[in-house]
Every structure is written in structure tokens, then in C-alpha cells.
Amino acid sequence: MSGAALLAALGEDGLLHSLTSRWKSNAKKVVVGVGDDCAVLRGKGKNSYLLFKTDAVVEGVHFLPRENPGLIGARPLPCPERSCRDGGEPFAALITLGVTKKESLRRLKGIYAGWRRPRKSTA
Fold first, then answer.
1. Rg of the chain over CA atoms, in angstroms?
2. What are phi and psi of 72, to 5 degrees?
3. Parallel/antiparallel/unpaired status of strands 96-98 and 39-42
4. Which of 37, 58, 87, 122 is 20 to 30 A from residue 101's alpha carbon, by CA?
5. Per the domain annotation, does 4 fall within a domain?
6. DSSP one-letter code for 31
7. CA-CA distance, 31 to 12, in Å (whole number)?
8. Domain boundaries, position 104
9. 49-63 pLDDT, tens digit each
10. Distance of CA 92 to the CA centre of its chain
């Protein structure tokens, strides 16, 4: 695909392939890498794996600019639900939140307060 290709034409998988097709990963450590919903890395034990997942929550895409922060934070954190159903157990979260620089600290604290609340397992 040419360098002038638009993102809309590439799609997510095409974009990832275009950006990372020349990357090499250590097959002894990386079971599933770039391109899946969740990277799978080998853990220390024989049947031990680390599931590594992040996702973005972007203002104007995933929530409205003036939406109640409590409602934003009440939504589930981006989670590899398929991995949880297959036996994975989440123990930490990576949060990528996209907002404008005009956002108030009070509102951001409200969003994070919602994410900090304990959740029932969806697995």
C-alpha cells in the first residue's frame, strides 16, 4: 500500500501492519504481539503468561466533552474480556485518557474516582 494511503482505507489491522511489519520480537518471550486485542507474554512459570492490554478513552470519541465525570468513570475500564473468559485474571490497569488541555482537574479526578471503585468480574 502506498505511503499516501488514508487511515480510513487501511483500517486498524492494515495500519498496524504498515507501521510494524518490519518489527522483530523475541518468540521465547512474546506469544502474541502487535495486532491482537491483547499481547501475551511468557511469564516465569511453565504455563504462566502475562496479558498486556491498554486502550484509549478519548473525549469526543468515547464520551462527550461535558459528560458527567461520574458516568465516564462508572464505565468499565478497557479490558481484554475475551482473555478473562479464557482464564486471565486482571490485576492492574493501564489508562490512556485523551482530553483537551482546558479540562479541569476536578472533572478528571471525578473520572478517575469512578475507575478506582471495585468492579464485579465480568468473566
1. 18
2. -65, -50
3. unpaired
4. 37
5. no
6. E
7. 21
8. 53-123
9. 888 877 778 888 888
10. 12
